[in-house]
Amino acid sequence: MPPPTARVLTLLELLQSGGTRTVAELAGRLGVEGRTVRRYVDQLIDLDAPVESVRGRYGGYRLAPGYRLPPLMLTDDEALAVLLGLVAGRRTGLTPAQRTANETASAKIRRVLPRNIARRLDTLLESLAFTEQPGASDAPDSGVLLAIADAVRHRRPVSIRYTDRDGRRSERTLHAYGIVAHTGRWYVTGKDAGIGEDRTFRLDRIADARALPGTFEAPVGPGPAQRVLSAFATAEYRHEVTLRIHGTVEQVRAHLPAGIASLEEHEPTAGQDRAAERWLRVELRAERLDWLPPVLASLDRPFVIERPDELRDLVTALADRLASRARRASPRKPLP
C-alpha cells in the first residue's frame, strides 16, 4: 500500500478532477476506511487546500470553485495528452494564443515528465509529420478570441476592426453566431449589422473586438460550422466553375467537400437507389484553376466542364502531358 503522504496527494488529485466525491468513493479509490479519508481531508485543510464538506444524501468532499490550486497535478498520460495537444495545435495553426505562451507551457510540462515518458514523446515527435504548416498570422489574438466568444455566449453585438485579403480596413458591428476552426484557421460567422447580411471573417485579420450594448436573437437554421462551409462555397472569387460529374454523392464529396463546392443532388427516379451513380451538378469558385485538373483526374469519373473555357484548356493540357509521358515511358517493341 502506498505511504500516507502518497495517498493524501492522490486524494488531492481526485478532488482536482471536479465535482463532489463521496466518502465511500474516496475510500474505495484510496484503499482505506472512511475515517482515514476524513483524516486525510483534515491534513489537506491544514495545508490551506480549500476542501469543502457537502452534506446530504449525495454529500462528500469537493474543492472550492474558482480556486487555482498550486500545484496542478497531472498523471503521466494526462501530461502527455496536454503536451501533444500543444504541439499539434501549434503545428496545425489552431493555437489561439501567442506562440510564446504555447512554447513556455510546453517547456514547463516537459521539465516534469519522467525520463521514460519524455523519451517516448521524442520518439513520437520524430516520426510525426504534418501536411500543412501554418502561416505566421494564422493564429488569432487571444484577447480578440475571448472577446468574441463572450459576445457569442451572451448574444451581444461586438465592434471589430477588420482587414480583408486586399488590405482594406474597416470597422464593423457584428452579431456573432459562433466561432469555427477550419483547415488550420479560425473564423467567426455572424450578421454584419451595417449591411444586414451574414458574413464570415478570419479571426487573425481582426485587430480589435469590443462588446457593445444590447442583445440580438440567435438565428434558426444551420449551425455556425455549416454557415462557414456554405460561405466558402459561395464566396466571390476570380473564377466561377460549373461541372457535371457522373457518380455518387460520396465519390464527388471525397474530392470536392462542402467547404469547396456546392452540390445539386437530384432526386432518384422510381426504383433507383439513392446511392446510385447519376449526373450531379457541381459549382465552385476559385482564385486559381491550376489545382482543379488533377482533382478531376483523381475522381476517375466522367465529367463535363460547362464553364469556364480556361478550365477546359487546362484539363486538355494535363491530358496531353500525361499521354506524352506514358508514350515515352512505354518500352519500344523490336522491329520484325
Structural class label: alpha+beta
Tell me the major beta sheet. 5 strands, antiparallel
- Top CATH class of the largest domain: Alpha Beta
Average residue-wise pLDDT: 81
User: How many DSSP E strands?
Assistant: 11
Distance between the termini: 88 Å
CATH topology of the largest domain: Alpha-Beta Plaits
Number of H/I helices: 11
Strand and helix order:
HHHEEHHHHEEEEEHEHEEHEH
Indicate the overall shape.
Answer: extended
Low-confidence stretches: none
Radius of gyration: 29 Å
Domain tally: 4
Residues in β-strands, percent: 15-25%
CATH architecture type of the largest domain = 2-Layer Sandwich
The strands making up the biggest β-sheet line up spatially as: 6-5-4-3-7
The helix fraction, in percent, is: 40-55%
What is the compact description of this entry?
This protein is an alpha+beta fold and 336 residues long. It has helices at 4-16, 23-30, 34-46, 76-91, 99-112, 115-127, 142-154, 224-234, 249-253, 292-299, 309-329; strands spanning 51-54, 60-63, 158-163, 169-182, 185-192, 197-202, 206-211, 239-247, 261-264, 278-286, 303-307. The strands form three sheets. The protein has a five-stranded antiparallel beta sheet with strand order 6-5-4-3-7. Strands 9-10-8-11 form a four-stranded antiparallel beta sheet. It has a two-stranded antiparallel ribbon with strand order 1-2.
